């Protein structure tokens, strides 16, 4: 039995439905999950990639209902491009994260940015959008990207976590826009909230989210300690660290691992713990 079917709307909560886009990959797991909030008058969260089949299924499933808001957690190409076609088909405004298009000339560690994303309204932390029977509050969670938002559904305690907290893996934090310091602060922000359940863009719903967040923060601290041990031994090149720290990792994910190590090093540099000489890192004097 396929627990992750594409092309079929599924109810996951009395107020929430989801539709899985057909874009599985090492970075998207089974694909990007589009969420529909409400009934009759609805919001669509993360409409997904530029994929005609996904959009066709979404529009067909929502026939007879009125889309009043299209919300994007961030602007990677597996999340926001379908917003434009959905707006054209429904007339609904694109609301949520700010536009962001980073010209990242390094090798990509995850999806590229959606350069054509143009929101009609940007939500700041704590601002809301509402419809019949539902209210969604923006929760600013920079780190994966600087413009990342989660959305809290006030009526039932659900939090749509985008890529900030996923149900299958830790998120990619890839400089120059991904920022480990901001990511850890955002995790701590969610840790202090009292949400009931998380609905991530990739992977299953998360009910024991406090436990997951503590584990994610602990995992990052462990990586930090590994990096510091490498520097103590004079092993200051990222490629060397990745080879030792990520043994057995799918080779397709090595670039992502290298970007993650770089994000940790930049965080440590900002805290005055490490320094660099060109591409070689060392403990700060």
Describe what you observe in this structure:
The structure is a single chain. The radius of gyration is 19 Å and the shape is elongated. The protein is built from 6 helices and 14 strands. The longest helix has 24 residues. It starts with 9 loop residues before the first strand and ends with a strand. A 7-stranded mixed beta sheet has the order 1-2-3-4-5-6-7, with helices on one face. It folds into 2 domains: 198 residues, Metallo-beta-lactamase, Chain A; 66 residues, Arc Repressor Mutant, subunit A (Orthogonal Bundle). The mean pLDDT is 92. The chain is an alpha/beta fold and 285 residues long. Keywords: Hydrolase. It comes from Allosphingosinicella flava. One of its GO terms (molecular function) is hydrolase activity.
| Cα-to-Cα separation, first versus last residue | 57 Å
Provide the helix percentage. Answer: 25-40%
- Under CATH, the homologous superfamily of the largest domain reads Ribonuclease Z/Hydroxyacylglutathione hydrolase-like
Q: What Rg is obtained from the alpha carbons, in whole angstroms?
A: 19 Å
Which spans have pLDDT < 50 for at least 5 consecutive residues?
A: none
How is the largest sheet built, in terms of strand order? 1-2-3-4-5-6-7
Order of helices and strands: EEEEHEHEEEEEEHEHHHEE
Under CATH, the topology of the largest domain can be stated as Metallo-beta-lactamase, Chain A
Write down the overall geometry: elongated
Q: If helices are DSSP runs of H or I spanning 4 or more residues, what is the number of helices? A: 6
In total, the number of domains comes to 2
Largest sheet: 7 strands, mixed
**Beta-strand fraction estimate:** 15-25%
Keywords: Hydrolase
Domain Metallo-beta-lactamase: 31-202
GO molecular function: hydrolase activity
Protein name: MBL fold metallo-hydrolase
């Amino acid at each position: 039995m396929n627990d992750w079917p594409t092309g079929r709307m599924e109810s996951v909560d009395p107020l929430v439905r989801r539709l899985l886009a057909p874009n599985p990959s090492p970075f998207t797991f089974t694909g990007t999950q589009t969420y529909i909030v409400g009934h009759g008058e609805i919001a669509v969260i993360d409409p997904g990639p530029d994929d005609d089949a996904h959009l066709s299924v979404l529009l067909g499933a929502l026939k007879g209902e009125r889309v009043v808001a299209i919300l994007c957690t961030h602007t990677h190409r597996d999340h926001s491009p379908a917003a434009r076609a959905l707006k054209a088909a429904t007339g609904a405004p694109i609301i949520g994260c700010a536009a962001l298009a980073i010209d990242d000339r390094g090798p990509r560690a995850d999806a590229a940015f959606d350069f054509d994303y143009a929101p009609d309204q940007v939500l700041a932390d704590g601002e809301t959008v509402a419809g019949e029977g539902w209210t969604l509050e923006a929760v600013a969670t920079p780190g994966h990207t600087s413009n990342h938002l989660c959305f809290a559904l006030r009526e039932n305690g659900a939090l749509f976590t985008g890529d900030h907290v996923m149900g299958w893996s830790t998120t990619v934090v890839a400089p120059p826009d991904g920022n480990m310091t901001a990511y850890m602060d955002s995790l701590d922000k969610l840790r202090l909230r009292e949400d009931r359940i998380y609905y991530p863009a990739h992977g299953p719903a998360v009910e024991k989210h406090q436990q997951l967040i503590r584990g994610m923060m602990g995992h990052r601290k462990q990586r930090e300690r590994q990096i510091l041990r490498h520097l103590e031994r004079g092993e200051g090149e990222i490629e060397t660290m990745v080879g030792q720290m990520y043994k057995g990792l799918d080779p397709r994910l090595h670039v992502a691992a290298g970007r993650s190590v770089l994000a940790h090093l930049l965080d440590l540099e900002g805290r005055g713990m490490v320094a660099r000489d060109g591409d070689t890192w060392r403990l700060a004097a």
